[in-house]
Design a protein that fits this description.
heterodimer, A: alpha/beta, Rossmann fold, 8 helices, globular, B: mainly alpha, MetI-like fold, 2 domains, 11 helices
């Protein structure tokens, strides 16, 4: 599913004053592509994702899904993963995942679908567990399964691994890529982790701060699976870094 | 597992022991004081004579008649009162227009103590069962109403947003998110409601009744039988405690997802 972001602007009114959060955002995501959006905190990247998800409306401009304007959440096309897993503490893993199902299915079809997705995210044996008994990474897997169960054509991820430890984070990134390769879902990933943005994305959209606007779009043409320790990776990382920390700001010792 | 169980059991026994020291001390002190004539027996009587009176009442079969009479009223009043509280509380939050209409009414009526309504209820419903049950209904209604409203209002907006991304209907959101979110708070209300109901039944029975624990107390005063009076008072305490233990047990079962340390 191709996603087009066209001249999106978002204004908030705070204390009677109009504040521009997003200014003239333009970029497009081809079908099956992964686009990472990086920016410092407060640059409006989460707001942008909410607009793409249809949870908020743009003040002007539009987001188009295969040419059709998005005005409200469309659960069959778009899945959203938030930074917090947002699970129901009173429901088991199974029931939490079941909440995601939006088609009307028979009981058996539902059961089968849930079982499939529990396996997909590697939570076999935890079907009846409550969220409080799961680690942060496992909780995020449940949330992933819950979104994937509708087979959305696009998946929006809002700093999904931000709260996880470094090791779990890398594993989860690999797993999402694995699922992406299987399903060829279009992915938009909002993150403040530059490594993550490059590891995952075909394009890295760099947002600047106040108001959020597209500063640069960097194409990442590294072959997959990507090696974070390779020179090519380091080169792309340098390109992205320079967007945030211009050369002259780097201390002298760094250049020697 | 086995070792932790032993440790837990040890701790429970220890806590029980610590908790029993003070009440036991008071009873012993009371008994010694009355044995030595330090306190007025005609008012304070003694633990021993309270025990004798208690045994006597059980033997005659009057004790359980009174207790059951009170419990029966509480059960009816509590069920009606908390059901009303649950229903009106939910509707008041879920339907904003109704909520705005009922909010001022709640503000005006809530400060009136249920006990203050007893004379009115007697005037209106007579001195039969319905006037007493009516008072209990009010006693249980307020705490359940307020905590239901608070519980529903405290639903995590992030979960509501999640429901929107999945395109869920209002009804699905209500049953999957809003009501379960409200349950812990509702339970707090139900617990306050039962103690409110129990307080009201005693008060109502002291004013107009021919049976019940409250009646026992006022009967003991009228006939200057401190033994009977104290049997009534102690019964209120013990039954109140038992009800609370029961509610906590149910609460732990129903709120299985909430960590028990919080309660």
């Amino acid at each position: 599913m191709a996603i087009n972001i066209k001249n999106v602007q978002k204004l908030f009114v705070i204390d009677g004053k109009q504040l521009e959060i997003l200014h003239d955002i333009n970029f497009s995501v081809a079908d099956g592509q992964i686009v990472s959006i990086v920016g410092t905190s407060g640059c409006g990247k989460s707001t942008l994702l909410k607009i793409i998800a249809g949870l908020e409306n743009a003040s002007s401009g539009a987001v188009e899904l295969n040419g059709k304007k998005i005005e409200r959440p469309s659960e069959k096309d778009i899945g959203v993963i938030f930074q917090e897993p947002r699970l129901f503490p009173w429901s088991s893993v199974e029931k939490n995942i079941e909440f995601g199902i939006s088609q009307s299915l028979s009981k058996q079809e539902r059961k089968l679908l849930i079982k499939e997705h529990i396996e997909l995210v590697g939570l076999n044996g935890f079907e009846k567990a409550l969220p409080k008994h799961l680690s942060g990474g496992m909780q995020q897997r449940v949330s992933l399964a819950r979104s994937l169960i509708n087979r959305p054509k696009a998946l929006l991820l809002d700093e999904p691994f931000g709260a996880l430890d470094a090791f779990t984070k890398i594993n989860m990134q690999k797993e999402v890529l694995h699922i992406w390769e299987k399903e060829k879902t279009t992915l938009i990933l909002v993150t403040h982790d530059i490594d993550e943005a490059i590891f995952m994305g075909d394009q890295v959209v760099v947002l600047s701060n106040k108001p959020g606007t597209v500063k640069k779009i960097i194409q990442v043409s590294l072959p997959r699976p990507r090696d974070r320790t390779s020179d090519d990776f380091a080169h792309v990382r340098k390109l992205v870094f320079e967007q945030f920390f211009p050369k002259e700001e780097i201390p002298i010792e760094y250049n020697i | 597992m086995a070792t932790t169980n032993v440790v837990q059991e040890k701790r429970i026994v220890q806590n029980l022991f610590l908790g029993i020291i003070l009440p036991l001390g008071i009873i012993i002190l009371w008994q010694t004081a009355s044995d030595h004539g330090i306190i007025k027996l005609s008012v304070f009587t003694s633990p021993k004579s309270i025990g004798t009176e208690f045994a006597h009442m059980i033997e005659k079969g009057t004790y359980f008649k009174h207790v059951i009479a009170s419990l029966e009223r509480v059960v009816y009043g509590y069920i009606i009162g908390s059901a009303l509280g649950l229903f009106i509380g939910s509707v008041a939050v879920l339907f904003k227009t109704f909520g705005k209409m009922i909010d001022p009414l709640i503000g005006i009526l809530r400060p009136i103590p249920a006990i203050a309504c007893i004379p009115f209820f007697i005037l209106w419903l007579g001195i039969g069962e319905s006037s007493k049950i009516g008072v209990i209904v009010i006693g249980a209604f307020w705490p359940v109403l307020l905590s239901t409203m608070q519980g529903i209002r405290s639903t995590d907006p992030k979960l509501l947003e999640l429901a929107r991304t999945f395109g869920k209907t209002r009804t699905a959101t209500l049953f999957n998110i809003i009501l379960p979110s409200a349950i812990p708070s509702i339970f707090t209300g139900l617990r306050l409601g039962i103690s409110g109901a129990w307080t009201c039944v005693v008060a109502a029975e002291m004013i107009a009744a021919s049976a019940g624990v409250g009646y026992l107390i006022s009967y003991g005063r009228e006939l200057a039988q401190p033994g009977t009076l104290f049997v009534g008072i102690v019964s209120i305490a013990i039954i109140g405690l038992l009800i609370d233990i029961l509610v906590i047990k149910i609460q732990k079962k129903v709120l299985y997802w909430v960590d028990t340390e919080n309660y």
